Amino acid sequence: MTVIGGLRRLWETDPRRDPTTLTYTLLAIGAVVVPLLAAATGGGYLVGQIADAGVFVLLAIGLNVVVGFAGLLDLGYAAFFAIGAYMYAELASPYLEAMGIHGGIHLPFWILLFVGMFVAAGFGALLGAPTLRLRGDYLAIVTLGFGEIVPRVVRNLGTLTNGVNGISAVDPPEVPAWISGPWSGDPFKIVTDLKVTDAVGYYLIMVVLVTVCVVLVNNLYRSRIGRAWMAVREDEVAAAAMGVNTVRIKLLAFAIGASLSGFGGAFYASKLAYVSPGNFSFLVSVTILVMVVLGGMGNIPGVIVGSLVIYYILYNFLPDLPGHLTDMANAFGFSGLLQQSGDWPGLAEEASRLKFLVFGSILVATMLLRPQGLMPSRVREQELQKGTHEDTTIEDVGAATGAE
Amino acid sequence: MQRSWLLTVLAAGSVVAGACASGGTGGGASAAPSGGAATGGASKGEIIIASDLPVSGADASDGIPTQNGVQFAVESTGTLKGFKLTWKGFDDTVNGAHDPQKGAQNVQQMLNDNKILGMVGPFNSNVAAAEIPVGNRGSLAMVSPSNTNDCLTKPDFGGKPCTDPNPKNLRPAGGNNYFRIAAADSFQGPAMADYAYDTLKLTKVAVWSDNEIFGKGVADTFQAEFIKKGGQVVVRQDFDTKVTNDWKPFLTDAKSKGAMGVYAGATSGTKACIPRAQMAGIIDGPYMTPDGGVNSQCIKDAGSNAASMYGTVAGANAEQNPDAKATVDAFKAKFTKKDDLGSYTFMAYDCAKIIIDAIGRAIDANGGNMPSRQQVVTALGQTKNLKLTTGTYTFDANGDPTTPTMSIFQTKSGDWAFIKQFGVGGS
Amino acid sequence: MEQPIAAGRAAPVRFRGLASSRPLNALLLLIVVVVALLLLTRVWGRGPGYFAQILVYGFANGSIYALIAIGYTMVYGIIELINFAHGDVFTLGGFVALALLPMFGVTESQRDTPGVILPLLATLVISMLFCGVVNVLIERIAYRPLRHAPRLAPLITAVGMSFVLEGIMFLWRGPFFLHFPDLLPSARISIGPETSVGVKELTVFAIAIVLTVVLSLFIERTKLGKAMRATAQDRDAAQLMGIDINTTIALTFFIGAALAGAGGMIFGLYFNSLSFDLGFSAGLFAFTAAVFGGIGNIYGAAIGGLVIGMVQSFSDGYFDSTWTQVVIFAVLILVLVFRPTGILGMRVPEK
C-alpha cells in the first residue's frame, strides 16, 4: 500500500470514533515533527533523549504482550533486557580480550539485534516451561526471583561479565549504507559501514525498530494467537476446554515478550556503549510495568503513550524539579526551605527523592480509579470494570467474565 | 494488512526527519569546529566546563565538596580571553550510590552540547571506565580529581598487564582524552600498608573489598605490600555491598584467625564504614580505608566506634600549602559550612584550573576563536609545570601526574584530621 | 466457587507432570546432594567451633525472617494476596524506632545500663502499634476496594503500595545507610574456643519466640483468633455465621504488621544499620520462608524463617556472601516450582 492509500484510509475513518488510529497518527506526526523542532532549536540533546525513550517503548510493548495480552504478571522483565544487553556487549566490544581472545569479538549490530532477540526468547521459554503452571501470584514471585537472580549472577561471574564494573567501550550501531551530504558537513556521497554515534542516528534507528515491533505485535494480536491469549487471560479453563493449548500459548507470550526485551537490550547497550548489572534492577522492571499499567494494559498505542509519559516524568520532570523548586522558593521568599536542618535535607534534595513515591502512587491510583489505564483496550476495559462493580468473589470473576 | 499504511507513513516520516535533523544539529560532536565560526564581538560566546560527580545520596559527602571546588574555580575565573566561562554540574548517582551507567549517559548529554569543552570528574574509577570510551569517541577533555585505579591510564598494574580495564580498549577512537591528578592505587594501597605495619605496628590484618574496580584494586595492592613487609593477611573477602548488611561472620572469622585490624577497600557509597560499627565487641583494633572513606558519611556510619580509623587521600592537602592560603580563605568565605570542604575540594579546583588553562592555550592556537574539543584535548596533554593549590602538575604520556602526592588522615573527636603527606615516586 | 476449583485441578494436570517429571526431580536431588556434600566438607574443614558460631548467627537472622514471614503467611492465608508492602512495613518499624529512641532521650552512651530497657520496650510497643495501623490503612485504601477484582489488580496495587512506603521512607531519611544506635549489651558468653553467644543474639531470639507464642495462643484460644481461622477457611461461610469479615481481615493485617514492625526494630538493634529499601529483599526472603513452611501455616512460617536464616549464614560463612542472595532466590524458585504447598505444609487447595 502506498502513502497515498494510507492517507486516504485515514481520511475515510473518523478518528474520533477510533482512538487507536488517532493515537497512531499523532505518534507518527510526532515522530517526524519533534526531531525537526529539536533540530531547529539546536537540541541534539532532546533527540538523544527521545531515542532513549524509544528503548522503553520497546520494552513496554514487549511487557504488554505478557501482562496485557496474556494476563501473566511478569515482575522480572528486566532480566531479559539484561540478557540482550550483555549478549551484545560481550559480542561487540573489546572486552573478550580479557578471556584471551585478541581484540575481542566485534559482530555486526544488525545481526546481534536478532541474536539478542532469540537468546532472550530462549531464556523466556526456559523460565516459562516449568513455572507457567503456577497460579498468577506465584508466577509473579518466580519471575521476580528470576529478575533478581540474573543481575546478581552477572555481578558475581567475575571475568566473564566483569562483575560490578560492567563492560565498557561497547561498539556503536553500524548501518550498512548511509548517504552523507551537505547537511552533515560532508561532500555528497554514499558511505558504507557507518558507525552511528550521534543523537540523530540513534533516533532514526530507534524509530525503525519501534515501528517494526509495533507492526509485528499488532499483527500477532489480530491473529489466532492473539485471540488465544485473550481467551487464556479471561478464563484459562474455558480456553483449554475450547481446544486452546494453554501451555503453549502462555509460553509463546512469555517468549515473545522476552524477545522484545532482548531486542531492546541489544540496542540499549550499543547506544550507551556500556552495560553494568546495576542497569537491570527490580526498579527497571517496575518502571516498565508502570508504563504498561498507566497506558492501558493490552492496548499498544496506550502503552506507547504511557511509556513516553513515564519516561518524561522520570528523566525530565523529576530531575529538573529540584532546580525549579529552588528557583520558586527563592522567588517567593521561602529560601529558608532550601537550607538543611535536622531531618529536613533541603527542598532540592527532598525533591530529588520523589521517584519511588511517584511510581507507587501511579500504580495504586491507576488500579483503583481507572484500572483500564489512560487509553483502555476495549476488551480489557469491560473485564476490569466488571470485576470492580459486581458483587462476586475473586474466584467467581474468572467464571463470570468467561461466560459472556 | 489493515495498518500497513502506518508503517509507510512512519518510515517515510522518519527518513525526512533524519535528513532534515542531520542538517540542523550537524551530527553532534563532529561539528564542534564549525560552532565557533560565528562568534565575535565583545563577548565571544560561552564556554561551559561540566562536572560529573556523585552529588546526592551516600556519596554526596564526597561529591558535593568536590563539586564546590569546580564551581568555585570556574566562577572565580569568570571570563577567559573574551569567552564567558560557566559551570554545569551533572550527578552520576542513582538511588544514592555512584552509577557508571548514569555517568555514561551524562557524558553523552555533554557531547550533545557544543559549548561544553571539558569536564571535571568522575569521582569513582568504575564510573571512569564507563565514561572514558564515550568521551573518547567525542574527544571530550576529562580530568579527574580522584580516580586512582592504575588500569585507567597505565598499561600495567602490579607487574601484570592491564586487562580489566585495558586502557587501550577504553580509548576506541585512539588518542588520549582522559587525565587525572591523583596518585594511583599502586601508591595508595601500599601507603596504608606501610603505615599499618610501621606506625600502627599491626602484623595480622583482615582485608575486604566492595569488588569494584577501585575497591578491589586498592585492597589487592594493600594486601601485596603488607605481605611483602612481613605481615599476614589472615582473611580476604570481596562483598556485594548492595545486598550485604552483615559483616559479623567475616569479622568473627578474622578474629578467630588473630586479625588485629581491618582494611576496607570500599567507598562510603559501598558501605565502607558500616562494618566498623559491627566490629564493636568483636575486633578491638584500628580500621583503615582508602580515600573513599575519608568523609563525614563514614564517620556517621561507624557510629560510636568511629575512633581510631585511618584513611589515605591520593592527593595533597591544600591547607598545608602556604601559597594556597588566599585561595583556601576565599573558598571558605564563599562556602561557609564545615561539610562544604572535603578532602578532594581543592584537587577538583585544580582540575578545573588545568582545563581552563588548556582551553586558554587552545583559544590562542585557534587564533582567538572557539577551539574544537580536539584542540582542547591536545592542549591539555601539553600541560607543564602548572603550579596550583595541591601541587605542580605536568602530565605524562598516559595522562598521569608526574609527581603525585599521598596524605594520611586519622579520626579525631568525630572528624578526619590530617597526619602527614609525602610525594610518591614519579612515573 | 466450586467449579473453578474442580476445573482448575483438571486442566493443568499434564503440565504438572512436566515439572515434577523424574529427570527434573533427579537433577534437583543431585544438585541438593552436591551442595550438601560440598558444605559438609567445608564444615568439616573449619571445625565444630566455627560451625556452632555460624549456627548462632543463623538463629538470629532466622528469628527476624520468621517475624516477617508470619505476617505474610497470615495475610495470604486469609485473603490470598501477596502483600508486597509487607517487607516495607518491616523497614518502617525500624525507621519509626530510630525516630522514637532520641525522643525517649536514649543515646548510645547508655548502652549496658539498665536505664535503656524501659525506653526500648516502649519503643518496641509503639513501633508495633504504628506499623499495625499503617498496614490496616493500606488494606483499607488499596486492597479492600479490589477484593472482587481480577487477581492481577490487587497484585499490582500491592507492588504500588510497596513503592509508596519505600518512597515515604526515602523522602523522610534519604538513600543513606542509617546508623541505628547500638543499645543491646555487647557482652558475649563464650561457649567454646571459637564460639560465643552474644546477649544481642539471645535478645533477638527471645523476642521472636515470645511474640510467636503469644500470637499462636491468641489465634488458638481467643474468639477473635477463631474468627480469623474461620475466615481463612471459608470466607462466605464465616460471614454467614455472623463473623464481621472486614474487621477480621483488618485484624489480621494489624497483627501481621505489628510482628513485622517488631522485626524491623530488632533488625536495627542487631545490625545497627537501616536503609529505605531493606524491606524489598527481606520481604521476599520472608515470603520464601512462608511458602517453604506451607503458606497459611504460622508455625511453618516461623520454621521456614529459621531455615532461610540458616541458609543465609551458612552461605555467608562457608561459601561466598556475594552468592547468598542468588542461593536464597534459587531456593525461592525451586520451592515455588516443585513444592508450592511447602515442605511442612498441608495441601492447600489451589484456587
Low-confidence stretches of chain C: 1-20, 347-351
Alpha carbon gyration radius of chain A: 23 Å
Number of E-type strands of chain A: 6
Just give the CATH class of chain C. Mainly Alpha
State the end-to-end distance of chain A. 37 Å
Mean pLDDT level of chain C: 85
Rg of chain C: 21 Å
Low-confidence stretches of chain A: 387-404
**Quaternary structure of the protein:** heterotrimer
The rough form of chain A would be described as globular
Strand residue percentage of chain C: under 5%
Offer a quick outline of the entry:
The complex is a heterotrimer of chains A (404), B (427) and C (351). With 404 residues, chain A is mainly α. Chain A has 16 helices and six strands.
How would you describe the overall organization of this protein?
The complex is a heterotrimer of chains A (404), B (427) and C (351). Chain A has 404 residues and is mainly alpha-helical. In chain A, 67% of the residues lie in helices and 5% in strands. Chain B has 427 residues and is of the alpha/beta class. In chain B, the strands form five sheets. Chain B has a seven-stranded mixed β-sheet with strand order 12-11-13-14-15-18-19, with helices on both faces. A six-stranded mixed β-sheet of chain B has the order 2-3-1-6-7-10, with helices on both faces. A two-stranded antiparallel ribbon of chain B has the order 4-5. In chain B, α4 packs parallel to α5, α6 (185-199) crosses α7 and α12 (345-365) packs across α13. Mean pLDDT of chain B is 84; it is low at 1-41. At the A-C interface, α5, α6, α9, α11 and α14 of A face α1, α2, α6, α11 and α13 of C.
